[in-house]
Every structure is written in structure tokens, then in C-alpha cells.
Amino acid sequence: MRALEPLLLLGVLALFVLSLVIGPADVPPGESLAALFSDEYGPMTLVMREIRLPRALLAIAIGAGLGMAGAAMQGYLRNPLAEPGLIGVSGSAALGAVVAIHTGLAASSALALPFSALAGALAGVGLIMLLAGPRGGSLTLILAGIAISALAGALTSLVLNLSPNPFAASEIVFWMMGSLADRSMLHLWLALPFVLVGAVLLAWTARGLSALTLGEDAAETMGISLSRLRIVLVLGTAAIVGGGTAVAGAIGFVGLVVPHILRPLVGGDPARLLWSSALGGALMLQLADIAVRVILPERDLKLGVVTALVGAPLFLHLIYKTRRELG
């Protein structure tokens, strides 16, 4: 389907505009958009530039990064059930943020929490590279990721168990559900460099992922260094997941659902799927964020909850489909 990418891009742009005009303030769409470009810095201009615009841009950046990372992971592991969180970076980033909330560091500065999450992500990457080793294969990478995720999950549970008061515990739980509410341009400028660097690294893997469809031996014969490919893949995925988790919390299933839906439409080409999944991920996360504001707006529905409600049934379908194919 040659028109897939243009259609996805049009969808992303349309949802971007829709995201800018949807909110609790009962203001007509035209007036909202006019306020965004107004020279008079009134209340509506403040809302558009400082609340809605960074939220919409973050949804595009994080969604695109997660979709691209999911396509890269599934291409490298040649498994449609793979997703970016498999390498454990999201769990370690969440642990860093949870520690910041627990210790009170997050209350000292607006950027203390995202920086702590990034520190956790960097620690997770270091552990992955240490456990997997320079010559470890895909199975070693998966096992290392599972081990790090389990350790980060256990430590996060320990922090919750030791929370000094129920308010700190509820703040931790709500943050881990994922959200783009109340994010500013500072959060965008913090996450965007990591997402862009990660996207560049994953784009470099396109040729290697295409070669891997013929098998590891054939890929090495074509001059692909599997160890270098794995390192670049891990670093690119970690940059995207770490940067996204640092500012938006844990948002799952985007990297699992989007590549699976789009794969038949690109003919199974891993290189093309990277860019299609980036657009599809931006589309899905924008839809989820709009749904958060439309469905129960007074109850602060969390973004990660919505993506999980969409992704979990599809994940079960994937498991059932895989079992039937193996049977």
C-alpha cells in the first residue's frame, strides 16, 4: 500500500489540530487556534502555548518513538510479540522516578523527576550491556531484559511498601499509569533530544533488519555486524523509552500494537515498517490522549490505562494466533 505513509501523516496532522482545540475550556475551535498565534498574551493564549501545544507535541514525539522502537525490536527478534519494554529500560526509568517521588526529590524541582527517570534508564542500559555482553545473541538480550525488568519491578514494589504515607504511594501509582497532563515545553525539550537520537540510531538499523529476514548467517554474509546492530538497537530503543518514560510515565502497548497492525500493509518490509510505525505510533498516542480528555474528563483518566485497554486484547489475540500457527 504505497499511500500508507501519506495517509498516516495526514491523520497525525488532523489529530494534532484536534488535540489543540479539545479541552475543558468551552472555547470555539477557531478562537482557540487564533489564540495560539495571537500577539496578545491573554489567558487562552497561555493555555494554548503552555498546556495544549506541549501536550500535543509530546504525544506525537513519544508515540512516534515507541512505534518505531517496537518495529525495530520485532524486526531484530523476528517476533511480533516483542515490544520496547522488553529490554527493561522502561522499568528502570520508572524505578528512578519512583525513588525521586519517595525521597521527596521530585518536590524540589520540576525537572527532578524526569532527570531521575533518565538516570534510572541509563543505569538499566548499563546493566543490559553488562549482562548481554558484546557477543550475546537475541536470546541473551531477552533474558537480560527480563532480569532487569523483574529487578526494577521488585525494587519499585519495595519503595511502594516503604512509602511514608498513603499520599506518596498514590502519587507513585498515578505517575506509573502514564499521563501527558500538565506537561510543559520544558518536558518537551527534555524528551525530544533523546527521542530524536534514538530515532536516528534505529533508522541506521534498517538495512540490518531487512537482511535479518533472510536469517543471521545470510545477514553476516551480506556484511551486517550482528553485535553492532544489537548495540545500536539497544541504545536507540533505550533513548526513546527512557526519554518518553521520564516525562510521561509508563505507557505500554504502543510499540506492540502499531507494528503488528501495519506490517501486512507494508508487505512485511522491516525498513519501511520503521517509518510507518513511527507515524502509526504518533497517531495511536494522540487518539489515546484525546480519549483521555473526552471520556470522564473530571476523573483524570490516565493515558497508560487507555493504551493498555486497547493493547491488551490485541496482545491476547496475538498469543492465540501464534499458538494456532505453531499448532
Uncertain ranges:
none
Strand fraction:
under 5%
Number of helices: 14
SS-based structural class?
mainly alpha
H/E series: HHHHHHHHHHHHHH
Radius of gyration: 20 Å
Largest sheet: none
Give the helix level as a range of percent: over 70%
Please give the number of β-strands.
0
Mean pLDDT: 86
Task: Note the gap between the termini.
Answer: 31 Å
Give the overall shape, derived from the CA principal axes. Answer: globular
Structure, explained:
By secondary structure, this protein is an all-alpha fold. The protein is 75% helix and 0% strand. Helix 1 runs antiparallel to helix 3, helix 8 runs antiparallel to helix 11 and helix 9 packs across helix 13. The radius of gyration is 20 Å and the shape is globular.
List its traits.
327 residues, mainly alpha, 14 helices, globular
Question: How is the secondary structure organized here?
Answer:
Elements: H1 4-21, H2 29-36, H3 43-77, H4 89-103, H5 112-132, H6 138-161, H7 166-176, H8 185-204, H9 206-212, H10 216-221, H11 226-248, H12 254-262, H13 270-294, H14 303-326
Helix pairs in contact: 1-3, 1-13, 2-3, 3-8, 3-11, 3-12, 3-13, 4-5, 4-6, 4-7, 4-11, 5-6, 5-11, 8-11, 9-13, 12-13
